[in-house]
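FAQ

Q: What does a record look like?
A: Structure on top, sequence underneath. For example:
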């Protein structure tokens, strides 16, 4: 809203001006009134209104005296003179003080509207010009900062302009760099984020925001880190981005700013190795290992062999230790994100190969290799990548342990109890559980006292009884327990139970369980 002050010694005139037009419709609020020139000048100095309507004749300081004093102290307020007919020629002298327009008493509504509309247009035009000028100055300052950060600033005049723009000196200086977590910032989103951060930071800190390389740079006085981090949380939701903030160290001299920038840049370049606090990069304890490996390459080369033995032994503690050793080895070798992820992918592939050689069923219980590698590649930090690898190893450990627990004859019976509805035969079970099919048939007779087929039929019929009592139709039950048709179920059911499925259901329906 534009601000307007009314200055007239007649209360009726001020009241009439308030009611003569709808000021809100023009985006104008009447923020204050005065009944003399001295008070009017004081209000203009305190409130710095966009405009003021001033009576030319007032006791003490008149309208012209007020306007002259306002201009002398640098006020840019637009004044509209309110005068009587006999004073009109006198009022025209005010042109030398830049008076915007004149209103002749008695004031006509149409005349006031016309003057106010013209004034609003002038204000809008001036605001646009100021915005363009500010944007131009900001662009020059940003370009100068970029050159300064990259040690490419040779012109002393440019440095003087930058110093004036930033209102230097400050007490301390800190450079922060901002980037998207997974991809480069798009131009449109980058500019929106720069404007958003500049508005927020500029209102609470000495700070300037600018593009540099493919990042967003921030130079601020101390204490801005947390505010930036908070602002990024909202920006991430608005822009649909995952952002990362790399703070450089504080420096106490403006000519040391490039040092703060270089530290922030190096940290951002190695962002995969750092932890996160919100969007901010924070130091990871892994970057300062407690010990040094004598042969880091040997650790990586033998990981799959050692991990496969730990999995077979169901030794999770050893798996964790082996993973941590790989982290130390990679960091000791100076590896970054791409090398680390590629190495983990290769080690996992080799591990699956070794485990499959011991038990070919491994490949059937783990995700496809390419799916695991893609999921590994999506991890944004070293800590997340190690945790992901740990989950894969623990899953292998669990599958291996479960398979071995179920590897005996009890495992075969458990498999039948859970897969009775699918096609089952001795040949399939022998292949799954690594038996000779002829031997497995004899083992069934010895362990259960009945043939495999009799045992399977009995299992299926017991399940069929439950489904029939639960209200399923006979043809539905046949399909659920693995028989090809309702007629085949009828034959098997009568053989085992001594009556048809329908008779069984009718006889037992309604009886207490």
């Amino acid at each position: 809203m534009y601000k307007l002050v009314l200055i007239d010694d007649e209360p009726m005139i001020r009241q009439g001006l308030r009611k003569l037009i709808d000021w809100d419709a023009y985006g104008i609020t009447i923020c204050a009134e005065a009944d003399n020139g001295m008070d009017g000048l004081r209000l203009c100095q305190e409130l710095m209104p966009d405009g003021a309507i001033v009576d030319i004749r007032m006791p003490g300081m008149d309208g012209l005296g007020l306007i002259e004093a306002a201009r002398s102290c640098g006020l840019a307020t637009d004044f509209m003179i309110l005068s009587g007919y006999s004073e009109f020629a006198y009022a025209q002298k005010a042109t030398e003080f830049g008076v915007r327009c004149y209103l002749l008493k008695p004031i006509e509504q149409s005349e006031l509207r016309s003057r106010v509309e013209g004034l609003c247009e002038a204000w809008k035009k001036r605001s646009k010009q100021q915005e363009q000028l500010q944007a131009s100055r900001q662009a020059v300052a940003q370009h100068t900062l970029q050159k300064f950060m990259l040690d490419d600033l040779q012109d002393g005049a440019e440095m003087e302009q930058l110093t004036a723009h930033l209102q230097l000196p400050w007490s301390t200086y800190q450079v922060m760099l901002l980037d998207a977590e997974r991809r480069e910032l798009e131009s449109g989103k980058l500019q929106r984020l720069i404007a958003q951060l500049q508005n927020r930071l500029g209102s609470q800190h000495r700070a300037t925001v600018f593009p540099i390389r493919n990042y967003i740079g921030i130079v601020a006085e101390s204490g801005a880190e947390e505010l930036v981090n908070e602002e990024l949380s909202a920006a991430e939701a608005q822009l649909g981005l995952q952002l990362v903030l790399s703070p450089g160290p504080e420096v106490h001299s403006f000519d040391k700013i490039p040092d703060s920038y270089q530290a922030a840049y190096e940290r951002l370049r190695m962002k995969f190795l750092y932890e996160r606090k919100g969007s901010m990069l924070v130091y990871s304890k892994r970057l300062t290992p407690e010990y040094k490996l004598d042969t880091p390459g040997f650790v990586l080369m033998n990981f799959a062999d050692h991990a496969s033995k730990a999995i077979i032994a169901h030794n999770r503690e050893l798996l964790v230790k082996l993973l941590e050793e790989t982290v130390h080895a990679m960091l000791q070798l100076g590896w970054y994100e791409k090398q680390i992820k590629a190495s983990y992918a290769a080690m996992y592939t080799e591990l699956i190969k070794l485990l499959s050689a011991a038990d070919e069923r491994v490949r059937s219980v783990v995700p496809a290799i390419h799916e695991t590698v893609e999921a590994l590649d999506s991890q944004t930090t070293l800590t997340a990548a190690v945790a992901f690898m740990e989950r894969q190893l623990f899953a292998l450990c669990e599958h291996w342990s479960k398979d071995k627990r179920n590897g005996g004859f009890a495992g075969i019976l458990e498999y039948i109890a859970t897969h009775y509805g699918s096609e089952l035969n001795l040949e399939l079970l022998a292949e799954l559980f690594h038996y000779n099919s002829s031997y497995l048939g004899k083992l069934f007779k010895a362990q259960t006292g009945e043939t495999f087929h009799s045992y399977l039929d009995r299992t299926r019929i017991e399940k069929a009884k439950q489904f029939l009592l639960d209200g399923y139709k006979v043809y539905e039950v046949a399909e659920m327990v693995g028989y090809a048709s309702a007629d085949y179920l009828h034959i098997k059911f009568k053989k085992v139970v001594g009556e048809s499925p329908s008779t069984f259901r009718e006889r037992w329906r309604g009886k207490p369980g």
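Q: Is there anything notable about this one?
A: The CA atoms of residues 175 and 219 lie 5 Å apart.
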